[in-house]
Design goal:
13 strands, 294 residues, four-stranded mixed sheet, four-stranded antiparallel sheet, alpha+beta, Gyrase A, domain 2
Length: 294
């Protein structure tokens, strides 16, 4: 997976609105905006959206999902104190970006060289603000900041607003369903045993109780781990079958490397795996069998 999306890999749209849109209507607004601008959003595109309150506009930024971060984020590391109230301008040879209170706020590509004083005057007027500081970043400084940013442990997580990217929710719902189902089975078994052996508490029963508790904890931990991995790699889960001796998982991804990384993370539980390429969908499909929890 690539790390930082460069400026030339990021599409930008600036949309006029009368006021900030309610969250419940935001997806419809994004969908309509993309259609009106003849933009086809791919399943694995990353979409970032931000309301610019000073000018009543939404900025939409789209870049390929194989990138983890946007180049505009590299200036986050310059802020030790996040509790600030200021506007900062960063100017490079190909773009400028505005930071508000220590966080990325707005960006724009540059088609030609600009005089920074003129740019500040323009932004102050358009945004009705006062830029508190500015800095010109040359190519060498930018590469240095990118390297340092990737090495940093503190990075702001930007939300992917891709309206087609809903399979993580499906995975989560499946995860919750399976846990509740298993809880119900365990509870039912415990209730049945309790009714049958209400007056008999012996070493064997204690041992069986411990086994069930261990089984439940193992099951819960395993699905928690599996859920986090699927969210991490943004897999599209197609089916999940729980059998007596194994679990069959079918999922797809646009990145074959992510599937191999998944195999590596569950290698101790892995029984077999198979990968095929779906040419029409341009996706890799994986069929995996893993050991059941016993």
């Amino acid at each position: 997976m690539l790390e930082i999306a460069p400026n030339n890999q990021i599409k930008s749209l600036l949309i006029d609105v009368s006021e900030e849109i309610e969250n419940k209507n935001l997806k419809k607004f994004v969908s309509t905006t993309l259609n009106l601008n003849n933009i086809v959003l791919n399943k694995n595109d990353f979409l970032y959206i931000n309301f610019i309150s000073e000018i009543n506009k939404y900025q939409i930024l789209i870049f390929p999902k194989e990138f983890k971060y946007m180049v505009f984020q590299i200036f986050e590391q310059l802020y030790i104190d996040k509790n600030i109230n200021k506007y900062d301008l960063y100017l490079t040879e190909s773009f400028f970006c505005l930071y508000k209170n220590g966080s990325f706020y707005y960006s724009q590509k540059l088609e030609s060289k600009v005089i920074i004083e003129d740019l500040i005057s323009y932004l102050n007027k358009i945004f009705s603000i006062k830029i508190d500081s500015y800095q010109f970043i040359d190519e060498f400084q930018q590469k240095k900041l990118e390297k340092k940013y990737l090495e940093s442990n503190e990075k702001n997580i930007i939300q992917n607003f891709n309206i087609k990217n809903s399979h993580s929710l499906k995975i989560y719902l499946l995860y919750i369903f399976l846990l509740f189902s298993f809880c119900a089975v365990v509870f039912e078994n415990k209730l049945e045993n309790s009714q049958k052996e209400d007056s008999e508490i012996n070493i064997k029963n204690d041992f069986e109780k411990l086994k069930k508790e261990h089984l439940f904890n193992s099951f819960s931990n395993f699905f928690n781990e599996l859920f986090l991995i699927f969210v991490k790699y943004d897999f599209d889960l197609e089916s999940f079958e729980y059998k007596e001796n194994s679990l069959k998982i079918v999922f797809s991804s646009s990145l074959k490397t992510n599937i191999y990384s998944f195999f590596n993370e569950i290698k101790e539980k892995l029984i077999s795996q198979e990968i095929s390429y779906l040419e029409k969908e341009e996706l890799f499909k994986a069929v995996v069998y893993v050991k059941s929890i016993r």
